[in-house]
Specification:
Number of helices: 1
Strand content: over 45%
Oligomer: single chain
Order of helices and strands: EHEEEEEEEEEEEEEEEE
Number of domains: 1
Structural class: mainly beta
C-alpha cells in the first residue's frame, strides 16, 4: 500500500507544510494551537454511562494539534478514513459517540458509524452513518463531534469500532480534517486509505473519543 505520512502545519495558521514518510502509508495532521484558552467540552447526558473513553479532563480532553488525517475522496489529498476500537466491559447499548474530530476545509461535515469487528478491523456496519456538521476547527480544544444513534446492542468482551469517514460522492466527499489523538500505550486501531480497512497494533497515538449508552 502506497502513501505518505503527511505532517501538516495548517497553511492558514502557520504558513508551512511539511511531508514525511511512514511505513503504514497513513497521514497525520499537525497544527498550531489557535488559542491557549481551552473551552470545556459539551456535557454528555447524565442518563448515559461511559462504555468506553480515552478522553482526558474537561479542558484537556485530547491533543488539540496532532491527529490522524481524515480526507474524503474529493479532498485535497488521497482518501483516508480512521477507526477507533472499543471493547465494552459488559453487555451494553450504545446511544452516543463523541470524537475529537476537527475541520480544515471542504464541506464541514463528517460521518460517524458503529461497526462490528472482523479480524482486527471494522467489519459489519451496525449503525450509521450519522452526519455530524459544524465540526470544530483545527487547532482548538476541547469540543467534540457528537453523534446520537438508535440503541445498538454490544456484547461485553467483544471489540467494536467507531468509524469516521465521508461519502464517496456528493456533499462531504471533499472534507479535509483530522481526528485528534491522545497519547496512550500501544493500542490497536484501523485505517482505510482506499484499499479497505487495515488493523494496526503497533501505534502509540490513537484517536480520542468516548462511547456512551446504557448498561445493560
Amino acid at each position: 500500500m502506497k502513501g505518505t505520512l503527511l505532517v501538516v502545519c495548517i497553511l492558514a495558521l502557520c504558513k508551512l507544510m511539511l511531508f514525511a514518510q511512514d511505513g503504514n502509508g497513513s497521514r497525520m495532521v499537525h497544527t498550531t494551537e489557535k488559542s491557549a484558552a481551552h473551552i470545556p467540552a459539551q456535557e454528555f447526558p447524565a442518563t448515559l454511562t461511559r462504555i468506553y473513553s480515552n478522553l482526558g479532563t474537561k479542558t484537556d480532553l485530547y491533543n488539540c494539534c496532532s491527529g490522524w488525517s481524515i480526507n474524503g475522496p474529493d479532498g485535497p489529498y488521497s482518501l483516508q478514513f480512521f477507526a477507533l476500537p472499543f471493547t465494552p466491559k459488559s453487555d451494553s447499548h450504545v446511544l452516543m459517540v463523541g470524537a475529537a474530530l476537527q475541520y480544515v476545509s471542504g464541506a464541514n461535515q463528517v460521518n460517524l458509524s458503529i461497526y462490528a469487528d472482523s479480524a482486527g478491523a471494522p467489519g459489519e456496519l451496525l449503525a450509521g452513518p450519522v452526519v455530524v456538521v459544524n465540526v470544530p476547527p483545527a487547532g482548538t480544544c476541547c469540543s467534540l463531534a457528537v453523534a446520537s444513534f438508535p440503541s445498538v446492542a454490544v456484547s461485553g468482551g467483544a471489540q467494536y469500532w467507531v468509524v469516521a469517514d465521508t461519502p464517496q460522492t456528493g456533499t462531504g466527499s471533499d472534507f479535509e480534517g483530522g481526528w485528534d489523538i491522545v497519547a496512550k500505550p500501544t493500542y490497536p486501531l484501523a485505517s482505510d486509505t482506499g484499499g479497505g480497512w487495515i488493523g494496526w497494533t503497533d501505534l502509540t497515538t490513537v484517536p480520542a473519543g468516548a462511547v456512551l449508552g446504557t448498561v445493560p
